[in-house]
Amino acid sequence: MNDGERTNYVYEFTYSSAPGLREIFQCKYVSPIEALNRFKKILSLTEAPFDFKILVSDETMGEESSFQVKGGSIAEMFAKFKVFLETSTGCIFDEIVDEIPESGFNETKLESMSNYDKMQVIIYASFKHGKFSSLDVAEIYEDSFNENLPKSTASTYLARMWDNGKGHLERYGNRSGYTYRLKTEVKEVLRETERAEELLAAIQMRVRE
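Request: output the structure for the sequence above.
Response:
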């Protein structure tokens, strides 16, 4: 099965990232391979998950399969989920699925992300439609990470992403006030927006704890 192929599966992951703290992540209509990769990205933000439950629904057949594990390391949880997906969907994973695909920004733990990495997540996840300025980016950055991002720094990072027209952004205006737009007609940009939306949602849960 192609990892970009649309399916009828709905996946819901419920897990505890700390005592008494339950988190839920859901994705729809992606392949089991893509679901596994997305689940690994979420787990990468959790230092010590205590237990988790997976529910896989096939909307066409009206069937559901669930699996629950209490305790274990992230690696153990991931390995068990992989086996569960194989048995519940019939998908056979290649070894490469254990690797998280490369993207235009760092998808490792929040603590290891640079300000530039974080700003890219904000842009891909928050500005799929319309134009935006460095001030717009700085405001959402502060709301999302509880950190200050100077407007001048945001402007520098935006210019880097624009890269004289070769990057993922289009630029309008002049030095007195630039605005930008994501090149959402480019497939690579669309892939980045999907990944960024998931990552930002997970990051915001961690930041607001």
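Confidence is low (pLDDT under 50) at residues 96-108.
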